[in-house]
Design brief:
The structure holds two protein chains of two kinds.
Chain A lengths: L4 E2 L2 E2 L8 E2 L9 H5 L5 E3 L6 E3 L21 E2 L3 H24 L1
Chain B lengths: L2 E5 L6 H17 L2 E3 L1 H6 L5 H6 L1 E6 L5 H8 L6 E4 H7 L12 H30 L12 E6 L2 E6 L4 E2 L4 E6 L2 E6 L1 H7 L2 E5 L6 E2 L4 E7 L3 E5 L4 E6 L1 H5 L3 H4 L7 E5 L2 H5 L3 E2 H14 L1
Parallel strand pairs in B: 1-2, 1-3, 3-4
Antiparallel strand pairs in B: 5-6, 7-8, 7-16, 8-9, 9-15, 10-12, 11-14, 12-13, 14-15
Chain lengths: ~100, ~290
């Protein structure tokens, strides 16, 4: 399968995914039950939930945080991520033009 | 207008205590009938008439949204919703974690009650205004669609006039304004839409900021804005009847914005045929 992209930018270059604050998380699993993209995975032991597949997370989606009662989920800074994507997008565009011209 | 108020009244955190205070004050100040969540859960028949005849205001303490979920489980829809922890976050403050209400919690309850009353007043004014002002015809309904067929599903995408972001949100532009809504694919993913929470008129939105949320019986969807601009209009027809998004996703715009950097925004959006290809790929992945 081709590498997934977001707005023409390889998904793996975009650092967008939730971070679990384990001081707040009560492992209620609401976020995991909510997220259809299998971003989270359950584990045995003390830490019962991890962000196992960050690249599955839909860029700019923060919907799981809205299900979180203890407010334990955070995301990267949005304007910074937008700026990064715009930069990468422009770079991708240039490399495509070069390929096309060669 | 008469009201019913359902508060989570949770003893899990201070925000829950605030919801109880909000419900009591609303009842005192507007004559709203209090719907006790514990009784509603156990004996829904007790509130059948109340819920059928009044606008329901739901007050949740935190994002677990027990009251909202209870309302949905009992087949009733809120006319207005407040989440206390969101209000606290927006104000940039914090709430003392005491279940007994301190002065900050009482002040917060006071503010939330005032906000609810103000929103209800605005709502009835806007409803009247909407009836008086005819619809502006500059945004044309889409006519040509392509249909992505996947399994038993059919996802429609307008071929022209609409641009999409990768978060399944569309923009339809006319002059210096854009209307924003969610795609047919996303409304089918969400299933029955029960609540639309738009931003306030006057809010400044950057591209990819949240421009409201859409809730269904299955999930909450953050509407990621395809454009930058200032919110100039809310579609009351959609906030009043959220399921209209299920029926007509491309006619059911949620907000209208005055655009601020459309030239730049367009670079990160795709047209109908390109979005249809995205939908085909996403449907296969899900």
């Amino acid at each position: 399968m081709a590498e997934t992209t977001f707005m023409g930018v390889p998904r793996s270059k975009i650092p967008w995914a939730p971070t679990i604050d384990y001081d707040k998380c009560d492992f209620c699993m609401e976020c995991d039950e909510f997220c259809p993209h299998r971003v989270f995975e359950r584990r045995e032991g003390d830490v019962k939930l991890v962000v196992a597949n960050p690249d599955n997370c839909v860029v700019f989606c923060r919907a799981c945080a809205k299900t979180c009662g203890p407010d334990a989920l955070s995301f990267p800074d949005k304007p910074e991520t937008v700026a990064l994507i715009k930069k990468l997008h422009a770079a991708e565009g240039e490399s495509r033009t070069e390929e096309g011209g060669a | 207008m008469s009201y019913a108020v359902l508060a989570c009244t949770g003893l899990d955190k201070a925000e829950g205590s605030v919801t109880r205070e909000v419900a009591i004050r609303l009842a005192q100040e507007t004559g709203a009938e209090i719907v006790c969540p514990v009784v509603l859960n156990r004996t829904p028949a007790r509130y059948k008439k109340t819920l059928a005849e009044n606008r329901l205001i739901v007050v949740d303490g935190c994002a677990t949204q027990c009251a909202s979920k209870l309302a949905a489980a009992k087949g009733t829809k809120p006319a207005q919703k407040v989440i206390v922890s969101d209000v606290v976050k927006k104000s940039g403050g914090a709430l003392e974690p005491d279940l007994r209400l301190g002065s900050d919690a009482l002040e917060l309850a006071r503010k939330i009650v005032d906000d609810i009353k103000a929103a209800e007043t605005a709502e009835s004014k806007e409803t009247r205004a909407a009836k008086e002002t005819p619809a502006v015809a500059e945004f044309e309904s889409p006519s040509d669609f392509t249909v992505v067929v996947y399994d038993k599903y059919e996802f429609r995408v307008p071929l022209t006039g609409f641009l999409f972001n990768a978060n399944d949100v569309w923009a339809q532009v006319a002059g210096s304004r854009a209307r924003v809504g969610i795609s047919d694919y996303m409304q089918q993913r969400l299933t029955d839409i029960t609540y639309v929470d738009p931003p306030d008129v006057g809010t400044t939105i950057e591209q990819f900021d949240e421009v409201g949320t859409v809730e269904s019986t299955k999930a909450t969807f953050e509407v990621v804005s395809p454009v930058s601009g200032t919110v100039v209009k809310i579609n009351e027809a959609v906030t009043d009847v959220p399921e209209s998004i299920n029926e007509d996703p491309y006619g059911s715009w949620i907000v209208e914005l005055e655009l601020t950097s459309w030239e730049e925004d367009q670079a990160l959006l795709v047209d109908g045929p390109a979005y249809a290809a995205d939908v085909e790929r996403k449907a296969a992945e899900d």
